[in-house]
Amino acid sequence: MTADHRARRLLLVHAHPDDESIGNGATMARYAAQGARVTLVTCTLGEGGEVIPPELAHLTADRTDALGEYRIGELSAAMKELGVDDVRFLGGPGRYRDSGMMGVPENGRPDCFWQADPDEAAGHLVEVVREVRPQVLVTYDEQGGYGHPDHIQAHRVAMRAVELAADPAWRPELGPAWRIVKVYWNRVPRSVLRDRLARAAERYPLVADEQDVPGVVPDETVDAVLDGADWVDRKAAAMRAHATQITVDGAYFALSNDRWQPLLADEYYQLVHGPAGSARPERDLFEGVEAP
Ligand SMILES: [Zn+2]
């Protein structure tokens, strides 16, 4: 059976603008180009981020606190590079504020995402799920990949929304129940990362630690690999659009901590819900979704 790509709908749930391009830029560009509907839900504006270009340093939370607004523009430029036109902020832009890294005082702000009521936040996502009716959802693992509170909360909200969206008795005013077929978590296979970090160390004075990179797992945990060779240029362009957060240099990039890490062309996933495709690793997140 030939897949009708236009019937495919992919939903990605991320914490901050830039996470989608780093983790899934090639995947998003590929499915969008094939005609699938690609929807991104970003949970915060990333107001708590640091800023790399000195001329934009005034945007940070401790100065003009204008970074969130600015990052809406960066995200929209990044999505143009990926060919994705359906981008939403959970509950609307600014509904949930960036919580900052784990342990900082901002974690306690009543308006931050970490303090959000999970069912209330999931309700905003259920509304999107029931409208878009995605077959496949991509988000983080229960550690949020690397322990950032907003990433952990994005995981909780996404997983809760998968469950609630499928329950016809839960808030029927948000639309008819919808059951997502497959759920994936973002992963990076440890051997790939180690190899690439070793190569980065030959070029750059400082490289990232393994634990700085979200979602690193033993290779055998990876269930799906998306070949990004044809899409990595789009991914790099999208990452460059997040200029306050990312410096791109060929096949590597650095965040504001100046520690270099690989810009991965291939993207890796763990299947946590739904039918596995016939081959492992799967090469297409929609394998097994279209009924014969
Ligand atoms: Zn993030």
TrEMBL record:
Q: Which GO terms describe its molecular function?
A: N-acetylglucosaminylinositol deacetylase activity; zinc ion binding
| GO BP annotation list | mycothiol biosynthetic process
Q: Which cofactor does it need?
A: Zn(2+)
Q: Which residues make up the binding site for Zn(2+)? A: H16, D19, H151
Q: Does the record's keyword annotation contain Zinc-finger? A: no
As its record notes, the protein acts as a catalyst of:
1D-myo-inositol 2-acetamido-2-deoxy-alpha-D-glucopyranoside + H2O = 1D-myo-inositol 2-amino-2-deoxy-alpha-D-glucopyranoside + acetate
Query: From which domain of life does this come?
Result: Bacteria
InterPro entries given for it? GlcNAc_PI_deacetylase-related, LmbE-like_dom_sf, Mycothiol_biosynthesis_MshB
Q: Which Pfam families match?
A: PIG-L
- Supply the EC number(s): 3.5.1.103
| Enzyme class of the recorded protein, top EC level | hydrolase
Annotated cofactor note:
Binds 1 zinc ion per subunit.
User: What's in the keyword line of the UniProt record?
Assistant: Hydrolase, Metal-binding, Zinc
By its UniProt entry, which PANTHER family does this protein fall under? 1D-MYO-INOSITOL 2-ACETAMIDO-2-DEOXY-ALPHA-D-GLUCOPYRANOSIDE DEACETYLASE, N-ACETYLGLUCOSAMINYL-PHOSPHATIDYLINOSITOL DE-N-ACETYLASE-RELATED
Q: Which family does it belong to?
A: Belongs to the MshB deacetylase family.
Described by its record, this protein's role is as follows: Catalyzes the deacetylation of 1D-myo-inositol 2-acetamido-2-deoxy-alpha-D-glucopyranoside (GlcNAc-Ins) in the mycothiol biosynthesis pathway.
This chain belongs to the protein called 1D-myo-inositol 2-acetamido-2-deoxy-alpha-D-glucopyranoside deacetylase
Q: Lineage, please? A: Bacteria, Bacillati, Actinomycetota, Actinomycetes, Kitasatosporales
Originating gene: mshB
